[in-house]
């Protein structure tokens, strides 16, 4: 059943971006829907040559005014593929083994339905994009499984930077290999990016781990939401709602269960980690 949303910001067509490794073209217009097969052939943005092995593919669903500028901002690291419906985007997502999905919530309900469909079977990072800057919309998208939320209007360079930042999380070599923190029944292994509560592993998203790791790196220090947004999301309140931080801390606490008391809210200031 479709999810309906109201608000002046959710009134136009849906866009979605799927970023994946592979050798696919930027023309997804031949896709017919969720039951059709993607008719794709290798190429660069103009379909003229094969990409390098290090290049990632991006599928964007929507007719947007900044198409050329976005293509330019995302190249040469990414190859851009375009589709014009949610069904086409979901078909591409299923066929190209995506590394990240960017979903615009501009069409009421549909964008959230796409997010739910992806979350039913995949833990791929998802960035939600919308012109609705209300905290409740941001929180709803995050609670449905989005890892990030970016408010329109934004420059294409900002969106490209957000894509880079999300893809960097959890992929680099951690300088703290072998370093662990134990606080009662909570055990954090920074090198392996694993968290255990009462001996059982707790599976966190890359962002949730980064939030916990930053807080635990300096016990008793209070981190403001602005600081967390800058350090973990490489962003600021002008680009993203502070509700992004609030919701991720809420999700982190739910997963920590009996160890959630180690993450403390300091009223009107932020959050701290207590041993």
Structure description:
By secondary structure, the chain is of the alpha/beta class. The protein folds into two domains: 16-168, Response regulator (Rossmann fold); 180-273, Winged helix-like DNA-binding domain superfamily/Winged helix DNA-binding domain (Arc Repressor Mutant, subunit A). The chain is built from eight helices and twelve strands. It has helices at residues 67-74, 86-96, 110-119, 135-143, 156-168, 206-217, 225-233, 243-256; strands spanning 16-21, 56-61, 78-83, 98-104, 126-130, 148-151, 180-183, 186-189, 194-197, 200-202, 263-266, 270-273. The chain has a six-stranded mixed sheet, sandwiched between helices. A hairpin with a 2-residue loop joins β9 (194-197) and β10 (200-202). The radius of gyration is 19 Å and the shape is globular.
Describe, in short, the structure shown.
The protein has 275 residues and is of the alpha/beta class. It is built from 8 helices and 12 strands. The protein folds into 2 domains: 16-168, Rossmann fold; 180-273, Arc Repressor Mutant, subunit A (Orthogonal Bundle).
């Amino acid at each position: 059943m479709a999810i309906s949303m109201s608000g002046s910001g959710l009134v136009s067509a849906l866009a979605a971006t799927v970023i994946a490794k592979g050798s696919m073209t930027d023309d997804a217009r031949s896709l017919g829907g969720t039951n059709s097969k993607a008719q794709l052939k290798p190429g660069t943005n103009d379909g003229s040559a094969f990409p390098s092995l290090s290049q990632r593919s991006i599928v964007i669903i929507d007719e947007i005014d900044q198409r050329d500028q976005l293509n330019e901002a995302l190249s040469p690291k990414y190859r851009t593929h375009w589709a014009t419906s949610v069904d086409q985007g979901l078909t591409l997502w299923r066929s190209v083994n995506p590394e990240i999905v960017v979903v615009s919530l501009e069409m009421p309900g549909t964008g959230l339905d796409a997010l739910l469909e992806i979350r039913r079977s995949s833990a791929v990072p998802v960035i939600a994009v919308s012109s609705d800057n209300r905290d409740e919309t941001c929180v709803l998208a995050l609670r449905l499984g989005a890892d990030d939320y970016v408010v329109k209007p934004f420059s294409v360079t900002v969106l490209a930077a957000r894509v880079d930042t999300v893809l960097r999380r959890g992929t680099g070599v951690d300088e703290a290999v072998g370093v662990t923190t134990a606080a009662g029944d909570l055990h954090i292994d920074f090198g392996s990016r694993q968290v255990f509560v009462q001996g059982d592993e707790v599976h966190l998203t890359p962002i949730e781990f980064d939030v916990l790791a930053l807080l635990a790196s300096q016990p008793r220090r209070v981190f403001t939401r602005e600081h967390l947004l800058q350090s973990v999301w490489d962003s600021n309140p002008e680009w993203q709602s502070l509700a992004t931080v609030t919701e991720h801390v809420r999700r982190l606490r739910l997963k920590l269960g009996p160890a959630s008391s180690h993450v403390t809210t300091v009223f009107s200031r932020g959050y701290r980690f207590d041993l």
